[in-house]
Every structure is written in structure tokens, then in C-alpha cells.
Structure to design on (295 residues):
């Protein structure tokens, strides 16, 4: 069966005005062309939908049954087309993104505000999960893209750098390290150290770099979230090294932070997407907000 939208529109126009002549003008078709369109529709469905004579035009019983179906099909098409136009024009839509907590709780809100001002009808679902989970959510298609640390070389992922984040030493203002002008890693080995549990990418990066330098920290507390690390520092349980993304949280808790040297540890923060999978117009618009801010 090969029924076209043109045929359905023609059928409904004829029924609405009860005249082939008027329907032809309404549709901007010649009467012969309109007659052929209706004939083709009737041949497709297997019988007459309109009973025609020189004086009268009426629906057949089958036409009466088909009429509400035709109206519904046309309405569904129009609605779907309008919805599609609204998606492309960002007048509606949904966006799902995965964001590591250190970015979600610091930089993300201001970008959401900018995006929402431009596209208030877009609904955004944020998965604030650890960096490793953010990458996985993109890989399995649960999030269109992620904002996280560089996951390294991958056959199925693309990474676009937004900025580089330098790790800083963090400790209470009452701590002996306050007297040290330039804090190095060797200063930290003297105190209880708070860090993320393995296999955190941050922990692995730090362990690998320090092992090369023969620096061994006094790891006393391990946890899964950087926010917990910060709170533990504030409780004076020890010192830590965290991404500078958390500077505002450290300041809010009246904690001190210093840039570290020997060695310096940086990690690139950026946008992770799946290769060979196009992004929605909505995702492209949000990434545009990020690019304008950082680049």
C-alpha cells in the first residue's frame, strides 16, 4: 500500500468543501490532477471513498470510516513536523550530559545559566558522576557528551580540551604549612594525607608521577569523592592535593591552597563525545556555550 500525504490532504479537502472544483482551487491543483489523486488513493485502499455524480458528492460507507483516520493521520504528521522544527530551532528538547563533580559543583552552574537564558524551553538532565563513570555514560549512549578529564587515547571517543587544571596543595589555615612559602611534594610527606581511592584516574596519575620521583606520601584516609576530601581537610584530618577547580570550595571553608612544584601535575578538562555519533542540535548549542567561554 502506497498512500501519500498529498492524497490524504486531497481527500480531506474534497470532503470539507464538498466540491472538486473548490477543492482544486484550495489545493492549487487542476481538477483532472485532483481527480487522478483521489483515484490513486482509492486504488491503494481497494475501493471507492467518494460517491460522485453530476449533481452530488458524498462519502461511501468506507469513506465515512476512513475520514476520522485521515484527519488523525494528517494531524499527527503536522504535529510531528512542528515538533521537529522546534527541536532544530531549540524551542523544545532534552539534553543529557555527564559531568565530573569537580566541574559540576564549580563551573557548570554559570554555563547552565547562560544556556537557559538563550534556550529556556530545553530541559537538561545532569549526571554528576565521577570522571570514570562520566566517560562510560558517553560510551554506552546514556549521555550525549561528558565534561571531564582527558580519558586518554580511545578508539571510540573524541576529546576536545577546554582548559588545563593544575593541582594544588590544600590544608587548614592553622596548619604548619602556612609558614612554607613554596610548597612542594616533599613537604606533604610529613603529614597525614587524604586522597581518592584507586582506581580513580586522579589517584593513578598522582601515584605514577610520584613513584617516578621516589616520593611516597603518608596516605592515611581514602575516599571516593573530592568533596569529601575537602570536608576532611576542613576537619583538620590531614592535607591533600586536589584540582584547582575546587578553589572556591576551599575558600568558602576558609582553607588554604598553594600551587605545587617538583613535579607540577596538570590534567586537561574538556568535552568527551562518541566517535561516529552525531550530536543533537541541543548538544551542539550547549557545547557552543562552553567553547565561547573557554576558547
Amino acid at each position: 500500500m502506497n498512500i501519500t500525504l498529498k492524497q490524504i490532504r486531497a481527500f480531506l479537502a474534497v470532503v470539507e468543501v464538498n466540491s472538486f472544483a473548490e477543492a482544486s482551487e484550495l489545493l492549487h491543483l487542476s481538477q483532472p490532477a485532483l481527480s487522478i489523486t483521489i483515484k490513486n488513493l482509492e486504488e491503494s485502499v481497494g475501493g471507492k471513498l467518494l460517491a460522485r455524480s453530476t449533481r452530488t458528492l458524498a462519502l461511501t460507507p468506507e469513506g465515512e470510516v476512513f475520514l476520522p483516520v485521515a484527519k488523525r493521520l494528517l494531524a499527527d504528521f503536522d504535529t510531528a513536523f512542528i515538533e521537529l522544527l522546534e527541536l532544530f530551532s531549540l524551542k523544545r528538547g532534552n539534553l543529557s550530559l555527564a559531568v565530573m563533580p569537580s566541574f559540576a559543583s564549580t563551573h557548570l552552574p554559570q554555563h547552565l545559566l547562560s544556556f537557559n537564558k538563550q534556550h529556556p524551553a530545553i530541559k537538561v538532565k545532569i549526571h554528576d558522576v565521577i570522571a570514570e563513570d562520566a566517560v562510560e555514560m558517553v560510551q554506552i549512549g546514556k549521555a550525549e557528551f561528558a565534561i571531564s578529564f582527558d580519558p586518554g587515547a580511545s578508539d571510540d571517543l573524541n576529546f576536545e580540551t577546554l582548559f588545563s587544571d593544575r593541582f594544588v596543595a590544600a590544608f587548614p589555615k592553622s596548619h604548619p604549612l602556612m609558614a612554607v612559602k613554596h610548597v612542594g611534594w616533599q613537604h606533604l610527606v610529613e603529614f597525614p594525607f587524604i586522597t581518592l581511592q584507586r582506581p580513580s584516574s586522579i589517584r593513578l596519575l598522582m601515584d605514577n608521577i610520584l613513584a617516578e620521583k621516589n616520593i611516597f606520601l603518608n596516605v592515611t584516609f581514602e575516599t571516593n569523592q573530592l568533596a569529601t576530601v575537602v570536608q576532611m581537610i576542613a576537619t583538620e584530618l590531614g592535607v591533600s592535593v586536589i584540582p584547582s577547580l575546587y578553589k572556591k570550595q576551599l575558600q568558602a571553608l576558609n582553607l588554604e591552597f598553594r600551587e605545587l612544584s617538583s613535579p607540577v601535575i596538570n590534567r586537561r578538562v574538556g568535552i568527551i563525545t562518541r566517535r561516529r555519533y552525531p550530536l543533537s542540535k541541543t548538544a551542539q548549542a550547549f557545547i557552543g556555550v562552553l567553547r565561547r567561554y573557554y576558547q
Observations:
- The chain has three domains: 5-88, 94-161+268-294, 165-266.
- The longest strand covers residues 157-172.
- Residues 115 and 286 are 6 Å apart (CA to CA).
- The chain has twelve helices and eleven strands.
